[in-house]
Amino acid sequence: MKKLQNYINGKLQPPKSGNYIENFDPSKGVAFSLIPDSNLEDVAEATSAAKKAFPKWSAMSLSERSEVLLRLSKGIEERMDEFVAAESLDNGKPVSLARQVDIPRAVSNLSFFATAILHFASESHYMEGVGINYTTRKPIGVVGCISPWNLPLYLFTWKIAPALASGNCVVAKPSEITPYTAYLLSEVAVDAGMPPGVLNIIHGLGTSAGDAIVKHPDIKAVSFTGGTATGAYIAKTAGPMFKKLSLELGGKNPNIIFADCDFDEMLSTTIRSSFANQGQICLCGSRIFIESSIYDKFKTAFVEKVSRMKVGIPSDLNTKQGAIVSKDHMEKVLSYIELAKEEGGEILAGGKQVFLDAPYDKGYYIAPTIIEGLPHDCRTNQEEIFGPVVTLCPFDSEEEVLEMANSTQYGLAATLWTSNLKKAHRVADEIHSGIVWINSWLVRDLRTPFGGVKASGVGREGGWEALKFFTEPKNIFIKS
Ligand code: NAD
Question: Which value, to the nearest 10 degrees, does the dihedral of the CA atoms of residues 72, 74, 79, 84 take?
């Protein structure tokens, strides 16, 4: 089995412990590679290399740093097919999705921040007759980046690109469930002549390698994307060390459909916003609220289309629904379907594991699932499932739907469908979330603030927000 390696101080190397963890192909349910089971020692070596590299990297001209990041971006692009296949194999997502979304977005994350940094300006505030304040923004030093399994390279590069562009050195950890493309990126970094120590990629478990990053005293900021419980643990651990924290956490997003929407466009987008990446996107709308007057029409059309969605092997170019990322996660999602039944929900489509033919018969597949008849405040409608499961719920008024939509602990993203402009603005304004899509879903502009409110996180990524997070402002006043 292929053994992945850590990337520390410019070199690919095995973990200090000599121990490895099995990495599974979810489409077959079999291990296909081994990843380093890194610990404190690996993180300490990476951090010390990053600390040593920092003075030179942070003093480099912006255009030189930009060039290095552009070489990384190009390096991925040149090995596109390999990255696409690796992402699909590791995660279970359809190869078509990895080709259309994941890997191109990783390429753009790096090129976007490589060029954004050239235009990033700090502020000045003139006080008439008194003086002038100007703000400098310096990189923080060594920063930690920890990312999840659902959009592996996409979210990994979304963090390391602004961190590196703004002059920091990075110790990064991809999810142990989907490490493969981050490993390929370390090969690209070696080929691209990334200066040693600037970017270090450590593989391993959250509770050992991840924890060591969070606790290392020389890592001054942590950018984390993952579950809310992990985020709470990181905040509790890093808070007393006064580390800068960016936490992008879970969601339970509402999709609000008013009767006056463009029905066909709404229907096709709602299928994507419910089930893209097997529903394992933090931005998927898992609670669908439908205005009562079109509830039956929507239900019939949606159930008919979703029931016809083929669950298939990720490497088949025609597959729209691939495998769930891991056995544990599949079992968690199935347990929520059972819970929904216990809570009185009726399964309108899916609701069960799917078994494909050998050699995929041990893979982790779940049919896209639609449930109705549940109150908005039951556990199924309050807790994050993060799989191909949505609930339908009718509503009669804006007030009622807003109360239900805002009733969870989360507040990441919301989608709403209406052709009434005033209503769209009014409802968008009242939704408790960091992002609202009106008559669309997952249209991304890398310049916009990205993140959630309440238990969906603290801070924002994207554009200037990310560059601000990864720099420390200093205000300097001069008397006139
Ligand atoms: P997770 O919290 O289990 O793991 C995320 C990362 O944190 C992994 O790399 C893991 O190894 C690491 N980790 C785990 N425990 C740690 C610890 N104690 N200390 C340090 N690091 C630790 O999340 P997951 O299951 O990989 O991802 C799914 C979750 O991510 C969902 O809740 C989803 O909503 C969320 N998510 C949020 C966004 C967003 O932008 N808000 C985007 C994608 C995914």
Answer: 80
**CATH value of 253-446 in 3.40.309.10, 3.90.226.10, 3.20.20.300, 1.10.630.10:** 3.40.309.10
Q: Active site residue: 282, 291, 384, 393, which one? A: 282
Ligand 1 proximal residues by C-beta, below 6 Å: 146-150, 155, 173, 175-176, 206-207, 210-211, 214, 225-227, 230, 233-234, 248-251, 282, 384, 386, 412, 452, 456-457
Q: Which atom of ligand 1 is nearest to the CA of 329?
A: 25
Q: Is 261 a catalytic residue?
A: no
265 phi/psi in degrees, rounded to 5: -65, -45
Q: Is 248 in the active site? A: yes
C-alpha distance from residue 51 to each of 8, 59, 64, 218, 411 (Å): 12, 13, 19, 8, 36
Instruction: Tell me if residue 240 falls in helix, strand or coil.
Output: helix
Question: How do the domains of the chain map onto residue ranges?
Answer: 2-249+456-479, 253-446
Domain 2-249+456-479 and domain 253-446, same fold? Reply is no
pTM, entire model? 0.98
pLDDT tens-digit profile of 168-192?
A: 999 999 999 999 999 999 999 999 9
State the pLDDT at residue 365.
98
Residue 310's Cβ-side half-sphere holds a number of Cα atoms within 13 Å equal to 10
Architecture of domain 2-249+456-479: 3-Layer(aba) Sandwich (3.40)
Q: What tokens does 70 get?
A: 């552009």
Q: Which atom of ligand 1 is nearest to the CA of 205?
A: 11
Neighbours of 432 (CB within 10 A): 18
